[in-house]
Amino acid sequence: MGKHSIDVAACPCCAHRTGGGTCPVCFWTDDGSTDKDADIPRGGPNGDLSLSHARLNYAIYGASHPRYQDVVRPPRPEEMP
Fold first, then answer.
1. Which residue ranges make up each domain of the chain?
2. CA gyration radius, the chain
3. What residues contact 80, with CB distance under 8 A and at least 6 apart?
4. Which of the four, 3, 14, 17, 20, has the lowest number of CB atoms within 10 Å?
5. Percentage of the residues of the chain whose pLDDT score is greater than 90
6. Which parts of the chain register pLDDT below 70?
7. Are the C-beta atoms of 22 and 58 separated by less than 8 Å?
8. Chain CA centroid to CA 3, Å
């Protein structure tokens, strides 16, 4: 299709293809949470934040938690879902 496409992991929180780890778009750290257990906080890098709550925060604040609003960045075109 003329576009270079690399299969990069999508962030479970914001769905942008940022490759795992801590997402620079929403600042969620991939902890293995899935839709199946999205309401359960796992502790670790995301503290008491569940994936469901992080997704809601992203929809409202543009970050997985309001405290991260100043450290996130907009998604790049190649990161779009």
1. 1-76
2. 13
3. 16, 17
4. 3
5. 88
6. 1-6
7. no
8. 24
